[in-house]
Amino acid sequence: MNKKIRITLFIIVTLSLLALTILLFPLMLSLRNEANRIELQNTVNRYGFVGWLIMLSIQIIQVVVAILPGEPIEVIMGLMYGPILGTLTCILGIVIGTLIIFVFTKSIGKPFISLFVDPDKFSDYKFINTSNKKDSLVFILFFIPGTPKDVLTYFAPFIKMNIFRFILISTFARIPSIISSTISGKSIIDGNWLLTIIIFSSTFIIAIIGYIINSKFLSKNK
Question: Which candidate, 214, 80, 32, places its Cα nearest to that of 140?
């Protein structure tokens, strides 16, 4: 039953992201005009703290609903709030989302986990608990682009590590990726399209390399 729920969620999210992309594409093109960029910034300022709370909530939901990609949200954070506040908002959302996962996983267990990720995938990461270098492994897995951080976050309650230590290490490892995404968002609102293309292209290439490294890493530790 939960597998059907995951598939349904995946389809809904995929279609929603596709629709959102279609809707936002004209907006992104319009940001080439400086007047439109200023208008967007004024809109963000108009909503103030309430708007920030909404974006924080979206980041939290992205962490909990593991099939949602995080990078687009990070880019939007940078576009709306700049690299500093955008990065801090992402980090806060990730911390809160991870705590929510930890609490619900501990209290509900497998029924909650299986709504969002396949519990069978946890077997790929059992080697973390048998290692004497858990801190290093957690850092590396969250630092490398292309790793399934959603699965890893749901695996957190089963790692023999204090949850706050896990959050500190995993969040710190995510910071470079978050900063690059928020900077790309800021470059969009500034109209610096060359920098945007360079960041997106570099991120894409690094993600592919990271995926290959992660696959070899898992194969080696099975």
Answer: 214
Helix ranges (H only) for 65-162 are 71-108, 110-116, 134-143, 149-155
Residue 102: per-residue pLDDT: 86
DSSP state of 130: T
Are 178 and 75 in contact, with CB atoms under 8 Å apart?
A: no
Q: How far apart are CA 39 and CA 16, in angstroms?
A: 26
The first and second tokens of residue 101, run together, are 């996962």
d(Cα 66, Cα 118) in Å, to the nearest integer?
Answer: 11
Residue of higher predicted confidence among 103 and 196: 103
Check whether 152 has a pLDDT greater than 70.
yes
Give the CA dihedral 59, 65, 69, 72, nearest 10 degrees: -30
Q: Which residue has the tokens 């809904």?
A: 12
> Quick one: pLDDT at residue 206?
74
Dist CA 2 CA 113 (whole Å): 9
Q: Which residue has the higher pLDDT, 100 or 130?
A: 100
Q: pTM for this structure? A: 0.75
Interior angle at CA 18, CA 15 and CA 22, nearest 5: 140
Name the amino acid, one letter, at 160: K
Share of the chain above pLDDT 90, in %: 5
Let me know: does 68 contact 178? Beta carbons within 8 Å: no
pLDDT at 166 over 60: yes
> In angstroms, rounded to a whole number, what is the distance separating the alpha carbons of residues 24 and 195?
20
